[in-house]
Structure formats: C-alpha cells, structure tokens
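Lab channel / #folding
Pinned by the channel admin:
"Please post every new chain as: sequence first, then the structure tokens as a reply. Keep commentary short and put observations after the output so the thread stays searchable."

First post following the new format, from NK:
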Amino acid sequence: MAQRIPDLIHYHAPRTRSLTIRWMLEELGIQPELRLLNLEKGEHKSAEFLAINPMGKVPTIVHKGVVITETPAICTYLADAFPDAALAPAMDDPARGRYFRAMFFYAACVEPAAADRAFKREAGPSIQIGYGTFESMLEGLKDIIGAGPFILGERFTAADVMLGAGVGYLRDFQVLPADSVLTGYVERVRARAAYQRTVAEEAVLLEQLAAQA
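Reply from TO:
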C-alpha cells in the first residue's frame, strides 16, 4: 500500500512526460494528491495552473508549498526527499557522480538530438551544439547505460526512471535505433512491477478523461 503524502501535489496529464513522475512515485511507494489536467480542454492553460507554472506544462509538483518543474529536477528532488526508498546514492557516495550524469543526460543531450533528428532540423555546427552530433550522443548514452543491468550496475535508481522512461519513449517511436544496448535496457526497466502498475493506472486515467468529453 502506497504511503499517502498529504503535502505533495502532482499535476498530471496522461500521454505526456508526466508519466515518468507517476512511475517515480510508484517506485518510491508514495501517493500524492493527484490533480488530473485535461489538455484537450486546455486546463493546463487555466489561470489557476498558470499561477503555479507559467509555462502551463506538466509534470509539475508542489511539495510543502514549493513548486518543482522539469522532469529530471522532479525525479532528483523526490529521490532525496524520500530517502527510505534508496533511489539515490548517499551524498558521500562517489556513485552520485555517475547518477547525476545519467539523470541529466536525457534532457540535456538525448531529447534535443532526437528532436532535431525527428523533425529534420539543421542542428548547426557540432562544436556549438550541446549534444555534439546524433552519433556522439548515442555513444554517450550507451556509455552511461554501461554493462547493466542498470546504470549503477545491480542497483536501480531514480536515474533509471528518468533515462529509462525517455529512451523507451523514443525507441517506441523509432527515433532511436534498434541498438541491442538500448533495447535491452528498456526491456529491463519496463519489466519492473512499478512500471507495469503505472502503465495500468494510466489506462484508467485515460478512461476518466474520455468520460469527461
């Protein structure tokens, strides 16, 4: 049974990056107050929500009155705020360096490179682009994943939630290649019971939104 956290609010819309936070919460074994936003009705652009996140984006959480946005920031924050789940290395653990590298690599390099590739955008000179080239991003990504099964070897962390969710999404849409390292990693993280529960719960939430139409 998930622990109810009364001072934690999660603003969520299915079929968005906010799924990563749903999965993270499931791995932590905690239950926030869920506020479901219907994007088709523009609820993410309501005055009420824009007062919380002026960008009108999910995921957004509010914990003890503090707003946190951006998926890697939320995952990092939650892992440290609820340490009993041991989803982050301790402050004095050298593994925290590899953990942070993985945590932020997706948003900083993988997604920008994938977006440029998917939308056939000219990225400009590689020396001026944060991710370098699409090919160098892939090599960096595979280096972070390593020999597995997870980023820190046998230990599953919040970085696997962040990277696993994003890489899995891009593999589903064939933006990333069918590389054995990437495919094997996605299969391993998606085999987790918490991920399976999250996907099942998302289907229920989608039905709720459909009923509002």
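NK: The chain has two domains: 3-86, 95-193.
TO: also worth noting, The domain at 3-86 is CATH 3.40.30.10 (Glutaredoxin).
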